[in-house]
Design brief:
Blueprint: H1 2-35, H2 39-60, H3 64-82, H4 115-132, H5 144-169, H6 177-189
């Protein structure tokens, strides 16, 4: 009898928690969906969050390992954002590959990591890193200039490799100039299929 009473109380106690979690998840998804067509506002919010994080690290004078890990993660996301979904070096050439010659048919650039997921992942990373700054276990004493120098070297080498890849396969991951604007307008107008 006591076993049944205990399990019944546990289910009754977890029901409000499950309802709250479901309501929170639904509300969060609603606002996330509403933010999707507003990239400027989303990115301004993320820049503000990043500024708060930088100020927190500056005033605490610590958590450099957390910042280094955050920088490596953001660099990894940036590479995914700048890379095509089908890498011509790794995948066999098929209908979704990038054009390699001027006579090839135009194929739109499709990112490996879409802009919305890029923004969402960066924002979550800054939130997690900010929360980590409130726990002293993550404040590992290190000589931060070495970490900064190493991150800059990684950034330069990685971006150099990515730019060489862009030049070799002739793609630009941004809409630049009149051709990019015309292609985007065609896609929005429905004349171009993805």
């Amino acid at each position: 009898m006591t076993m049944e009473g205990t399990s019944g109380e546990g289910v009754a106690a977890s029901a409000p928690l499950a309802k709250w979690r479901s309501d929170f998840s639904r509300t969060f998804q609603y606002y996330l969906d509403r933010s999707s067509p507003r990239p400027v506002g989303r990115w301004l919010g993320t820049v503000a969050l990043a500024a708060v994080y930088v100020l927190r690290v500056y005033f605490v004078q610590g958590f450099y390992i957390v910042s280094y890990g955050l920088g490596i993660y953001v660099l990894n996301l940036l590479i995914g954002f700048l890379s095509p979904i089908v890498d011509p070096e790794l995948e066999a050439l098929d209908g979704a590959s990038l054009p390699s010659r001027g006579s090839d048919e135009f194929k739109p650039f499709i990112r490996r990591l879409p802009e919305f997921k890029f923004w969402y992942s960066i924002t979550k990373a800054f939130c997690v890193a900010f929360v980590m700054t409130f726990f002293s276990i993550f404040d590992v004493p290190v000589f931060w200039p070495i970490l900064l120098f190493y991150w800059i070297v990684l950034f330069v080498l990685t971006m150099k490799r990515q730019i060489v890849h862009m030049i070799k396969y002739k793609y630009v991951p941004f809409d630049i100039g009149s051709r990019g604007m015309a292609e985007r307008n065609l896609r929005v107008g429905g004349a171009m299929t993805d």
